[in-house]
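Notes taken during the Thursday session

The instructor put the following on the board and asked us to keep it in front of us for the whole hour. The protein is Thioredoxin. We were told not to look anything up and to reason only from what is written here. First, the residues (325 in total):
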Amino acid sequence: MTGNDNPYAGSFGNQMTASASFGGQPPAAAPPSGDLIKETTTANFAKDVLDASRQQPVLVDFWAPWCGPCKQLTPVIEKVVTEAAGRVKLVKMNIDDHPSIAGQLGIQSIPAVIAFVGGRPVDGFMGAVPESQIKQFIEKIAGPAVDDSKAEIEAVLADAKALLETGDAENAAGLFGAVLQADPENTVAIAGMVDCMITLGQIVEAREALTSLPEDLAKDAGISAVAKKLNQIEEARKLGDPNALEQRLAANPDDHEARLMLAKIRNVEGDRNGAADHLLTIMKRDRAFDDDGARRELVSFFEVWGPKDPATIAARRKLSSILFS
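Then, after some discussion, the predicted C-alpha coordinates were revealed:
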Protein backbone atom coordinates (compact mmCIF):
# COMPACT_ATOMS: atom_id res chain seq x y z
CA MET A 1 0.00 0.00 0.00
CA THR A 2 1.67 3.18 -1.13
CA GLY A 3 0.91 6.69 0.03
CA ASN A 4 -1.32 7.17 -3.02
CA ASP A 5 -3.48 4.09 -2.52
CA ASN A 6 -3.59 4.19 1.29
CA PRO A 7 -7.24 5.14 2.04
CA TYR A 8 -6.18 6.72 5.33
CA ALA A 9 -3.18 8.69 4.10
CA GLY A 10 -3.20 12.35 5.05
CA SER A 11 -6.51 12.11 6.85
CA PHE A 12 -5.89 10.86 10.36
CA GLY A 13 -7.97 12.66 12.94
CA ASN A 14 -10.40 14.18 10.45
CA GLN A 15 -13.12 11.75 11.43
CA MET A 16 -13.04 12.60 15.14
CA THR A 17 -11.33 15.89 15.83
CA ALA A 18 -12.70 16.74 19.27
CA SER A 19 -10.15 16.41 22.04
CA ALA A 20 -9.81 17.28 25.69
CA SER A 21 -6.81 18.83 27.41
CA PHE A 22 -6.65 18.94 31.19
CA GLY A 23 -3.70 20.77 32.71
CA GLY A 24 -2.44 21.39 36.19
CA GLN A 25 -2.48 17.84 37.53
CA PRO A 26 -0.41 14.90 36.32
CA PRO A 27 -2.35 12.28 34.36
CA ALA A 28 -3.44 9.11 36.06
CA ALA A 29 -0.99 6.23 36.05
CA ALA A 30 -1.21 4.00 33.00
CA PRO A 31 -2.90 0.62 33.34
CA PRO A 32 -0.59 -2.39 33.10
CA SER A 33 0.74 -2.78 29.57
CA GLY A 34 -0.86 -6.21 29.36
CA ASP A 35 -4.25 -4.52 29.47
CA LEU A 36 -3.29 -2.16 26.65
CA ILE A 37 -1.33 -4.33 24.20
CA LYS A 38 -2.32 -7.73 22.89
CA GLU A 39 -2.15 -10.03 19.89
CA THR A 40 -5.33 -11.00 18.06
CA THR A 41 -6.52 -13.52 15.51
CA THR A 42 -9.07 -13.51 12.72
CA ALA A 43 -11.54 -15.28 15.01
CA ASN A 44 -11.06 -12.78 17.84
CA PHE A 45 -10.84 -9.63 15.72
CA ALA A 46 -14.48 -8.63 16.25
CA LYS A 47 -14.17 -8.88 20.05
CA ASP A 48 -10.64 -7.49 20.42
CA VAL A 49 -11.03 -4.63 17.95
CA LEU A 50 -14.57 -3.85 16.80
CA ASP A 51 -16.29 -4.34 20.17
CA ALA A 52 -13.41 -2.88 22.19
CA SER A 53 -13.29 0.25 20.00
CA ARG A 54 -16.80 1.15 21.11
CA GLN A 55 -15.33 1.81 24.56
CA GLN A 56 -12.02 3.44 23.55
CA PRO A 57 -9.96 3.81 20.37
CA VAL A 58 -8.05 0.71 19.28
CA LEU A 59 -4.93 0.82 17.11
CA VAL A 60 -4.37 -2.31 15.02
CA ASP A 61 -0.74 -2.93 14.04
CA PHE A 62 -0.54 -5.22 11.00
CA TRP A 63 2.94 -6.82 10.97
CA ALA A 64 4.91 -9.92 10.02
CA PRO A 65 8.01 -11.58 11.53
CA TRP A 66 10.12 -11.01 8.40
CA CYS A 67 9.32 -7.27 8.21
CA GLY A 68 12.31 -5.11 9.23
CA PRO A 69 10.35 -1.82 9.57
CA CYS A 70 7.82 -3.69 11.72
CA LYS A 71 10.60 -4.56 14.17
CA GLN A 72 11.58 -0.88 14.26
CA LEU A 73 8.01 0.28 14.88
CA THR A 74 7.09 -2.26 17.58
CA PRO A 75 9.06 -0.92 20.57
CA VAL A 76 8.22 2.68 19.69
CA ILE A 77 4.46 2.25 19.29
CA GLU A 78 4.25 0.03 22.39
CA LYS A 79 6.09 2.69 24.41
CA VAL A 80 3.79 5.48 23.22
CA VAL A 81 0.63 3.44 23.80
CA THR A 82 1.76 2.57 27.33
CA GLU A 83 2.53 6.23 28.06
CA ALA A 84 -0.91 7.20 26.74
CA ALA A 85 -2.29 5.87 30.02
CA GLY A 86 -5.22 3.90 28.68
CA ARG A 87 -6.52 6.41 26.16
CA VAL A 88 -5.97 3.85 23.40
CA LYS A 89 -5.34 0.13 23.10
CA LEU A 90 -2.90 -1.57 20.74
CA VAL A 91 -3.86 -4.82 19.04
CA LYS A 92 -1.22 -6.57 16.93
CA MET A 93 -2.07 -8.86 14.02
CA ASN A 94 0.43 -11.13 12.27
CA ILE A 95 -0.67 -11.04 8.63
CA ASP A 96 1.26 -14.21 7.79
CA ASP A 97 -0.94 -16.18 10.18
CA HIS A 98 -4.08 -14.07 9.69
CA PRO A 99 -4.13 -12.42 6.24
CA SER A 100 -7.87 -12.00 5.65
CA ILE A 101 -8.52 -8.85 7.70
CA ALA A 102 -5.58 -7.01 6.16
CA GLY A 103 -6.80 -8.08 2.74
CA GLN A 104 -10.29 -6.76 3.42
CA LEU A 105 -8.82 -3.39 4.44
CA GLY A 106 -6.70 -3.22 1.29
CA ILE A 107 -3.39 -3.32 3.16
CA GLN A 108 -0.58 -4.15 0.75
CA SER A 109 2.45 -2.90 2.69
CA ILE A 110 3.47 -3.23 6.33
CA PRO A 111 3.79 -2.06 8.98
CA ALA A 112 0.34 -0.51 8.73
CA VAL A 113 -1.53 0.87 11.73
CA ILE A 114 -5.29 1.42 11.49
CA ALA A 115 -7.30 3.15 14.21
CA PHE A 116 -10.79 1.87 15.00
CA VAL A 117 -13.39 4.00 16.80
CA GLY A 118 -16.99 2.98 17.38
CA GLY A 119 -16.53 -0.32 15.60
CA ARG A 120 -15.14 1.06 12.34
CA PRO A 121 -11.78 2.16 10.88
CA VAL A 122 -11.37 5.93 10.98
CA ASP A 123 -7.70 6.60 10.37
CA GLY A 124 -4.27 5.12 9.86
CA PHE A 125 -0.63 5.40 8.89
CA MET A 126 2.00 3.13 7.40
CA GLY A 127 5.70 2.67 7.90
CA ALA A 128 8.05 2.92 10.87
CA VAL A 129 7.22 6.53 11.68
CA PRO A 130 8.98 8.47 14.49
CA GLU A 131 7.72 8.51 18.06
CA SER A 132 6.60 12.13 17.74
CA GLN A 133 4.29 11.27 14.85
CA ILE A 134 2.78 8.33 16.73
CA LYS A 135 2.04 10.64 19.68
CA GLN A 136 0.45 13.15 17.32
CA PHE A 137 -1.64 10.38 15.75
CA ILE A 138 -2.92 9.21 19.14
CA GLU A 139 -3.78 12.77 20.16
CA LYS A 140 -5.76 13.17 16.94
CA ILE A 141 -7.66 9.97 17.63
CA ALA A 142 -8.11 10.05 21.42
CA GLY A 143 -7.25 13.57 22.51
CA PRO A 144 -4.42 14.59 24.82
CA ALA A 145 -4.08 13.11 28.30
CA VAL A 146 -6.66 14.23 30.83
CA ASP A 147 -6.53 14.73 34.58
CA ASP A 148 -9.10 15.19 37.29
CA SER A 149 -9.17 18.99 37.40
CA LYS A 150 -12.82 19.68 38.24
CA ALA A 151 -13.08 23.05 36.51
CA GLU A 152 -11.55 21.79 33.31
CA ILE A 153 -13.66 18.65 33.34
CA GLU A 154 -16.76 20.82 33.64
CA ALA A 155 -15.62 22.84 30.65
CA VAL A 156 -15.07 19.70 28.58
CA LEU A 157 -18.49 18.36 29.59
CA ALA A 158 -20.06 21.62 28.43
CA ASP A 159 -18.29 21.31 25.08
CA ALA A 160 -19.41 17.70 24.76
CA LYS A 161 -23.03 18.60 25.49
CA ALA A 162 -22.90 21.37 22.90
CA LEU A 163 -21.56 18.96 20.27
CA LEU A 164 -24.26 16.42 21.09
CA GLU A 165 -26.98 19.06 20.82
CA THR A 166 -25.80 19.87 17.30
CA GLY A 167 -25.90 16.19 16.36
CA ASP A 168 -22.14 15.61 16.41
CA ALA A 169 -22.39 12.50 18.56
CA GLU A 170 -19.04 11.03 17.51
CA ASN A 171 -16.95 13.99 18.66
CA ALA A 172 -19.15 14.41 21.73
CA ALA A 173 -18.43 10.77 22.61
CA GLY A 174 -14.73 11.48 22.29
CA LEU A 175 -14.96 14.22 24.92
CA PHE A 176 -17.24 12.26 27.24
CA GLY A 177 -14.80 9.35 26.96
CA ALA A 178 -11.86 11.61 27.83
CA VAL A 179 -13.66 12.70 31.00
CA LEU A 180 -14.41 9.10 31.93
CA GLN A 181 -10.72 8.26 31.64
CA ALA A 182 -10.08 10.82 34.38
CA ASP A 183 -13.26 10.21 36.38
CA PRO A 184 -14.86 6.82 35.59
CA GLU A 185 -17.88 7.50 37.82
CA ASN A 186 -18.70 10.95 36.43
CA THR A 187 -22.47 10.59 36.01
CA VAL A 188 -22.77 13.47 33.54
CA ALA A 189 -20.20 11.83 31.28
CA ILE A 190 -21.84 8.41 31.66
CA ALA A 191 -25.25 9.80 30.73
CA GLY A 192 -23.70 11.73 27.85
CA MET A 193 -21.88 8.67 26.51
CA VAL A 194 -25.08 6.60 26.57
CA ASP A 195 -26.94 9.45 24.87
CA CYS A 196 -24.26 9.45 22.15
CA MET A 197 -24.78 5.72 21.66
CA ILE A 198 -28.52 6.30 21.30
CA THR A 199 -27.97 9.11 18.80
CA LEU A 200 -25.62 6.89 16.77
CA GLY A 201 -28.22 4.11 16.71
CA GLN A 202 -26.26 1.83 19.04
CA ILE A 203 -29.36 0.84 21.00
CA VAL A 204 -28.12 -2.55 22.15
CA GLU A 205 -24.82 -1.09 23.33
CA ALA A 206 -26.64 1.70 25.17
CA ARG A 207 -28.83 -0.81 27.00
CA GLU A 208 -25.81 -2.90 27.94
CA ALA A 209 -24.01 0.18 29.25
CA LEU A 210 -26.96 1.11 31.47
CA THR A 211 -27.49 -2.44 32.67
CA SER A 212 -23.87 -2.72 33.78
CA LEU A 213 -24.01 0.37 36.01
CA PRO A 214 -23.95 0.00 39.80
CA GLU A 215 -27.30 0.75 41.43
CA ASP A 216 -26.11 3.99 43.04
CA LEU A 217 -25.00 5.42 39.69
CA ALA A 218 -28.14 4.22 37.88
CA LYS A 219 -30.26 6.29 40.27
CA ASP A 220 -28.61 9.56 39.20
CA ALA A 221 -31.17 11.94 37.69
CA GLY A 222 -29.26 12.46 34.45
CA ILE A 223 -28.68 8.75 33.92
CA SER A 224 -32.29 8.03 34.82
CA ALA A 225 -33.44 10.53 32.19
CA VAL A 226 -31.35 8.93 29.44
CA ALA A 227 -32.60 5.50 30.55
CA LYS A 228 -36.18 6.74 30.12
CA LYS A 229 -35.24 8.05 26.68
CA LEU A 230 -33.97 4.61 25.75
CA ASN A 231 -37.14 3.02 27.13
CA GLN A 232 -39.24 5.35 24.98
CA ILE A 233 -37.27 4.44 21.86
CA GLU A 234 -37.54 0.72 22.52
CA GLU A 235 -41.27 1.02 23.16
CA ALA A 236 -41.90 3.16 20.07
CA ARG A 237 -40.22 0.56 17.88
CA LYS A 238 -42.97 -1.88 18.83
CA LEU A 239 -45.92 0.40 18.06
CA GLY A 240 -46.23 -0.19 14.35
CA ASP A 241 -46.48 2.04 11.30
CA PRO A 242 -47.15 5.73 12.07
CA ASN A 243 -48.89 6.12 8.70
CA ALA A 244 -51.38 3.45 9.70
CA LEU A 245 -51.98 5.27 12.98
CA GLU A 246 -52.54 8.53 11.10
CA GLN A 247 -55.16 6.75 8.98
CA ARG A 248 -56.89 5.50 12.12
CA LEU A 249 -57.04 9.06 13.45
CA ALA A 250 -58.34 10.40 10.15
CA ALA A 251 -61.17 7.87 10.32
CA ASN A 252 -61.81 8.50 14.03
CA PRO A 253 -60.23 11.55 15.75
CA ASP A 254 -61.32 10.09 19.11
CA ASP A 255 -59.18 6.97 18.67
CA HIS A 256 -57.10 7.92 21.70
CA GLU A 257 -55.14 4.69 21.68
CA ALA A 258 -53.86 5.42 18.17
CA ARG A 259 -53.13 9.03 19.12
CA LEU A 260 -51.16 7.97 22.21
CA MET A 261 -49.07 5.52 20.20
CA LEU A 262 -48.47 8.13 17.51
CA ALA A 263 -47.33 10.62 20.16
CA LYS A 264 -44.75 8.12 21.41
CA ILE A 265 -43.47 7.56 17.87
CA ARG A 266 -43.28 11.27 17.04
CA ASN A 267 -41.34 11.86 20.26
CA VAL A 268 -38.55 9.45 19.35
CA GLU A 269 -38.54 10.81 15.79
CA GLY A 270 -37.66 14.20 17.27
CA ASP A 271 -41.01 15.93 16.67
CA ARG A 272 -41.44 16.99 20.27
CA ASN A 273 -44.06 19.64 19.63
CA GLY A 274 -46.13 17.22 17.54
CA ALA A 275 -45.85 14.54 20.21
CA ALA A 276 -46.96 16.94 22.93
CA ASP A 277 -49.87 18.23 20.86
CA HIS A 278 -51.22 14.69 20.41
CA LEU A 279 -51.15 14.10 24.17
CA LEU A 280 -52.72 17.48 24.92
CA THR A 281 -55.47 16.70 22.43
CA ILE A 282 -56.29 13.49 24.30
CA MET A 283 -56.44 15.41 27.58
CA LYS A 284 -58.82 17.97 26.10
CA ARG A 285 -61.12 15.26 24.77
CA ASP A 286 -60.95 12.66 27.56
CA ARG A 287 -58.90 13.24 30.73
CA ALA A 288 -59.95 9.82 32.04
CA PHE A 289 -58.48 7.90 29.09
CA ASP A 290 -55.98 5.28 30.29
CA ASP A 291 -56.29 6.59 33.84
CA ASP A 292 -54.95 10.03 32.82
CA GLY A 293 -52.30 8.27 30.74
CA ALA A 294 -51.78 11.18 28.34
CA ARG A 295 -50.72 13.51 31.15
CA ARG A 296 -48.43 10.88 32.66
CA GLU A 297 -46.80 10.28 29.28
CA LEU A 298 -46.31 14.01 28.75
CA VAL A 299 -44.61 14.34 32.13
CA SER A 300 -42.33 11.46 31.13
CA PHE A 301 -41.44 13.39 27.97
CA PHE A 302 -40.61 16.47 30.06
CA GLU A 303 -38.21 14.43 32.20
CA VAL A 304 -36.27 13.40 29.09
CA TRP A 305 -36.44 16.73 27.25
CA GLY A 306 -35.40 18.76 30.29
CA PRO A 307 -37.10 21.80 31.86
CA LYS A 308 -35.41 24.35 29.58
CA ASP A 309 -36.25 22.68 26.29
CA PRO A 310 -38.53 24.94 24.18
CA ALA A 311 -40.93 22.05 23.61
CA THR A 312 -41.19 21.48 27.37
CA ILE A 313 -41.85 25.15 28.05
CA ALA A 314 -44.51 25.40 25.34
CA ALA A 315 -46.25 22.18 26.34
CA ARG A 316 -46.24 23.11 30.05
CA ARG A 317 -48.10 26.32 29.25
CA LYS A 318 -50.72 24.44 27.26
CA LEU A 319 -50.96 21.80 29.98
CA SER A 320 -51.57 24.45 32.63
CA SER A 321 -54.38 25.99 30.61
CA ILE A 322 -56.06 22.57 30.37
CA LEU A 323 -55.60 21.66 34.04
CA PHE A 324 -56.62 25.02 35.52
CA SER A 325 -59.13 26.38 33.04
